[in-house]
Amino acid sequence: MENKSLTPQEVAEILKISKCTVYELIKRKDLNGYRVGNKVRVDMLDVEEYKNKSKSIKTKKSGNPEQAQPERAAAAELDSNRDDRRESFTICGQDSLLDILCRHLGRHPRGVPALRSYESSYNALYSLYRGDANVAAAHIWDGKTGDYNIPYVERMLPGIPSVIIRLAARMQGIYVLKGNPRKISGFEDLGRKNISIINREPGSGSRILLDEYLKKLGISISKIKGYENESNSPMGLTSAIAKGHADMAVGLELPFLKIRQIDFIPAHKEYYDVVIKKAHIDQPIYQAILDIMKSEDFKMEMHGINGYDLTDCGKIIAET
């Protein structure tokens, strides 16, 4: 058997369980998993080992009906389409601020240890819609309205009343080589034939921002050199530019990106928000999240991360 590397979603489809349950199995060390950058991966051989291990347990127990019944019940529960919030709580999004939120949530009197799903903004909202995540974080700009997140929440969670809570404001911009030898000043420079780009993955806030600007500027992606070249992390973008593989990329202004070989051109203020289904907002764990986001302890820890405006952190921005 080929030992392919699988995503949690692919593992979930093989085992006929939810993606949240896959993360829970990895967390409990029932299933081996590992990280590639900020993504979780599982080898096919480990999935087969997990399946065989489960089969051997059932076979061993099957001689005694009274013993076998709990095993069958556990398997049925695992394979059912139940709400995984009963046994796991998942916050979906890529920013390190969510790691800080999870840490505080694990210590809060009404909180729980939370799982992290490192998905792009678009996929985070989709996971919330599917019930694979309890909380989604997003920074998606709608070029038509000029609003952040609200139009996408309304479209991607149809018929599901939701609450959008501000986490932070921050700056999106353009990475270029130190000294800006190509004299790049904004998104419009992508219309120049001699400019190449390294892109973020589809569904990320930075990718959607770029695509919206290209649409407004009337620049066809087919004319952009390197548009199809992608990286799943800001460090991948800056590395490609530093090595001469691209002239520019769109990403966040962050302290760790201020490396000697790269300059940052501010271009667009964006908003990073947390999205929760309104039906859940009064439950203790969600109230704990609101408490944490408004707390001075949380804000003080975030103040150590330059480039984030926390003025409205914890404020309910909209209800859809």
From TrEMBL:
PANTHER family: BLL2305 PROTEIN (PTHR38431:SF1). Pfam families: HTH_17, PBP_like. Residues 65-77 have a biased composition (Low complexity). Residues 6-53 form the Helix-turn-helix domain. Transmembrane segments: none annotated. InterPro entries: HTH_17, PBP_domain, SinI_DNA-bd. It comes from the Bacteria. It comes from Ruminiclostridium hungatei (Clostridium hungatei). Residues 53-81 are annotated as: Disordered. GO terms for molecular function: DNA binding. Gene3D superfamilies: Periplasmic binding protein-like II. Residues 103-294 form the PBP domain. NCBIfam families: excise. This is PBP superfamily domain protein.
